[in-house]
Amino acid sequence: PWTDSIAPSAPSRFEQRDLDAQMTELRWDTCADNLCPEGVRYNVYASPASPVDVTKAENLVASCLPEPFFTFNRRLGLSLAVTALDRCGNESAPLQIRLAPSAPASAPQPHYLPTDGTTLTLPSAFEAEQYSITDLAGRPLLTGRWQEQADISSLERGVYRLCALPRKGSPRIVAEFRK
Fold it and tell me: How many CA atoms lie within 13 A of 47 on its CB side?
């Protein structure tokens, strides 16, 4: 059977926006695919070495992101690369990213949502019907109705992301928490 072998266009024109003293949001232009433009996903790679070797699986830190943005801790001092991926598994050339200098060493520690280890308090400022809890690679682990608290007792120790799932529009990363 015929399968597409043409990779999507490579990501381009990145923007870096500091969210706080440590966390940065990285955005890039959407990529085009010859068969299914809306099916493009993005992989993010990170490494202490620059340029980042996207052929090494250990450098993959986020896969199949549906939107052209990624939030990360810039104080880790890693170089980043972003590729586009189509539904046939064809991966584009990487966009190698040089970041602006990080915040000074005296920057405050990251803010995590409060949790007692079994319950996560959800922020009330979000207009969302449901939530999703993902690992840092974006893999969904738990979902539920947006209410005052979420049961996280089934999660192992680690750092996770809380995402708001609105009725319309794309999911949004709200914050991270540590269990």
Answer: 16
